[in-house]
Amino acid sequence: MENKTRDSWIHLAQDAKRNAYIPYSHFPVGACLVTKDGQTFTGCNIENASFGLTNCAERTAIFKAVSDGAKEFQYLVIVGDTEGPISPCGACRQVVAEFCDQDMPVLLVGKDSEMKETTVSELLPYMFTSKDFND
Known about the structure:
By secondary structure, the chain is an alpha+beta fold. It has helices spanning 3-17, 57-67, 90-99, 120-123, and strands spanning 29-35, 40-44, 73-80, 105-109, 115-119.
């Protein structure tokens, strides 16, 4: 993948971050999920006074994509205002594992553009998947 393409996905995630609804944490996060055919779906975190009902940026992007019929993904970018590369929460890691291939790249970006590229399986080793169900 060209850096120009990756940079455009980072910019889309940063734009999404600006839409975050964060009246409680003041911690904006943005995400850009890319399908295998090049479509992009963005998401931001959306908080709720009942914190358990808050939705993270990664899940917002994934749910938007799936609700629009997309099911095959090639790349995920997550951006936040953290000192180093942002770390997704456990719930987001499990949702990413549900919809994305284990070897799919995930780019984590902090506020000073410090980046770490990882994979779905590195984010959630020993993940619970549909393969764990008995037939």
